[in-house]
Specification:
Elements lengths: L2 E7 L4 H19 L7 E7 L20 E7 L4 H19 L6 E7 L20
Parallel strand pairs: 1-2, 3-4
Antiparallel strand pairs: 1-3
Helix pairs in contact: 1-2
């Protein structure tokens, strides 16, 4: 945990996709301090024209390399979220050649009762985790 959903325009090479997923996870581990094996990622690829990302007056240019991340997580501090945004953009630019203008992130916080990792149990509540 956290659960990360990637919405992308289809057509990326497998190596590029793997680098994107690995880099994002490494930043989550580094900034949020999650365990390395807490890796839950879902990729949804969209045909061109089926993923529209426009800002509301910020003038941010977008390209076909847009990455929209939707993250569900237990609560994180504002400071850690801001640090995550900055480090993610830096790392994706360096390792994946994805411009910071092509990275959009939304983090939704939830509670321990909102997670079941299997077997029909809420492992944070049962203290299995």
């Amino acid at each position: 945990m956290p659960l990360v959903r990637f919405d992308l325009i289809e057509g990326r090479h497998e190596r590029d996709l793997e680098a994107l997923l690995d880099t994002t996870h490494e930043v989550l581990v580094s900034v949020f301090g999650i365990p390395v094996r807490d890796r839950y990622q879902v990729v949804q690829e969209h045909r061109p024209g089926r993923l529209i990302v426009q800002d509301s007056g910020l003038g941010i240019p977008r390209s076909e390399r847009i990455v929209v991340l939707s993250i569900s997580s237990r609560p994180r501090s504002d400071e850690s979220k801001v640090a995550f945004y900055a480090e993610l953009c830096r790392a994706l630019k360096e390792r994946c050649a994805i411009e910071p203008s092509d990275v959009m992130v939304s983090i939704t916080s939830n509670t321990n009762a909102d997670w079941s990792f299997g077997y029909g149990r809420a492992q944070f509540l049962t203290r299995e985790l």
